[in-house]
Amino acid sequence: MEVVRVFVAGSIAFLVLSVLGEELTGLSPCNFPAIYNFGDSNSDTGGISAAFYPAGQPSGETFFHEPAGRGSDGRLIIDFIVKRLRLPYLSAYLDSIGASFRHGANFATGGSTIRQLNESFFVTGVSPFSLDIQIVQFDQFKTRTSNLYNQAKKHSHRRNLPRPQEFSKALYTFDIGQNDVAAGIRTMSNEQFRVVLPDIIDHLASAIQHLHEQGARTFWIHNTGPIGCLPVTQHYYHHPMPGILDQHGCLISQNEMAKEFNRQLKRRVTKLRAQLPGAALTYVDIFAAKYKLISNAKKQGFVDARSICCGYHEDYNHVWCGHKDKINGTEIYAGSCEDPSLYISWDGVHYTEAANHWIANHILNGSFTDPPVPITHACQKGQHV
């Protein structure tokens, strides 16, 4: 059955036909020439590996067949985004080796937070490249590449550089916030976290406003996922007291913190639409998409969502994916499972390529976005829900 919905973009009315979950619009697709991404390990395509220790095997084994700077066995959601938009995979801004920035750049690094934290990457894993630093890096990138492009006399000297006039036509994506929630869980009570949360959201909104001042007009903004469903967290609750876990084994208190972050983020995105009337801002409910997969894991062909493909996690002993350690005098190598495509969790924190592909398929058609338009038409300002 076809469902017809009408959206209004300015003075232009257009139809959206939902046919078997695929969105088709009467308007031409946006044809984004580039993507600029800001985020954490959920969308890092090599930044933290270039800055510190490179990711080793078995990461990347499924698709790239070698480590590719991603916290997964293969591709991330951002990789499926660029594929849907028919663009090449994004080079990390921090990785100069073999990089091409013709169609965008990725400023995300694993462990990044929205708000700067006074913590060390070598102690807690928090990246020094918080969102404000990523924005500074973008500013420098935009200025320097534009200057180099304009100075270049040969086409060959320009082939890896973005065209200056295309920055305003690009898609700007955000996938960050999970580590801010994690820091709140680690260092604060729920009440304390609620006090600092508006400031965290303010920092994200300021980043969007700054990019808008620099000419950005189309934003695709992910909320944060169900952190209480991460298997490495669930591992500690074998016999929990009633009311600690939900029906899918997820820690209720941690998910409530993520939900509060998402509620405040959505309200701020709504406010930004009024403040930036020339911009198109899409709010993406990653939490709902990931939770739908987790709660229907076996129906979708996956093993139990709490199972971890790569790593050793028994009792309170942890050997992270690809590492070795001695447990009770026995050397343990934390290798990967036989078939990662059956697992949702790659290493207890990050998702497998198969899970990322499933999630991408369910957000890119507009099923979990406000407004409910596909990413190919994200530059159009539709009706919000």
UniProtKB/TrEMBL annotation:
Question: Signal peptide position in this chain?
Answer: 1-21
Q: Is this entry keyworded Repressor?
A: no
Protein name in the entry = GDSL esterase/lipase At5g14450-like
Q: Which GO terms describe its molecular function?
A: hydrolase activity, acting on ester bonds
A Pfam family per the record: Lipase_GDSL
The record's keywords, sorted A to Z, are: Glycoprotein, Hydrolase, Signal
Q: So what family is this one in?
A: Belongs to the 'GDSL' lipolytic enzyme family.
Which SUPFAM superfamilies is this protein grouped with?
SGNH hydrolase
Q: Which PANTHER family match?
A: GDSL-LIKE LIPASE_ACYLHYDROLASE, ZINC FINGER FYVE DOMAIN CONTAINING PROTEIN
InterPro entries for the chain: GDSL, SGNH_hydro_sf, SGNH_plant_lipase-like
Q: Which domain of life is it from?
A: Eukaryota
| Protein's organism | Fagus sylvatica (Beechnut)
